Amino acid sequence: MIVATYGNVTQLNDGSSLNRDWVILNDAKCPLQLGNDIGINTVYNSDTRSFRFGPTGKVTASEGISAYEIHHVLYNVFGEHISTLSNVEINDLN
């Protein structure tokens, strides 16, 4: 549901029946495959009164990779582009 906990007191969009949904695009020829759990984790920080977005999920490499970048394109409930978040990982994967 699109209900976000707003600190320990309030919830954003409380009572919403809308569900979040995402589409994962994998190219079969790409040596890096995204898992079905790839997405964005949203956390509210009550000290700074702001949201923090972080990547979540797993990737699988079919050959050696030293770096990758994943783009998460976010849309609002009306299909309008909100933002594009990038996840850059510089790490040797076998």
Per DSSP E runs of 2 or more residues, the count of β-strands stands at 8
Radius of gyration: 16 Å
pLDDT under 50 segments (min length 5)? none
Report the span from N to C terminus: 36 Å
**Major sheet strand order:** 1-2
**So how many helices?**
0
Shape: globular
List the domain count as a whole number: 1
How can the largest sheet be summarized? 2 strands, antiparallel
* Structure class: mainly beta
Fraction of residues in β-strands: over 45%
**Secondary-structure element series:** EEEEEEEE
* Integer average pLDDT: 82
Residue share in helix: under 10%
Key descriptive features of the protein:
94 residues, mainly beta, two-stranded antiparallel sheet, 53% strand
Tell me the layout of helices and strands.
Layout: E1 4-6, E2 10-12, E3 32-34, E4 39-45, E5 50-56, E6 59-61, E7 65-75, E8 81-93
Antiparallel strand pairs: 1-2, 3-6, 4-5, 7-8
Explain this structure to me?
A hairpin with a 4-residue loop joins strand 4 and strand 5 (50-56). The strands form four sheets. The protein has a two-stranded antiparallel ribbon with strand order 1-2. It has one domain (4-93). The termini are far apart. Helices cover 0% and strands 53% of the residues. The protein has strands spanning 4-6, 10-12, 32-34, 39-45, 50-56, 59-61, 65-75, 81-93. It is an all-beta fold and 94 residues long. It is globular and about 45 Å long.
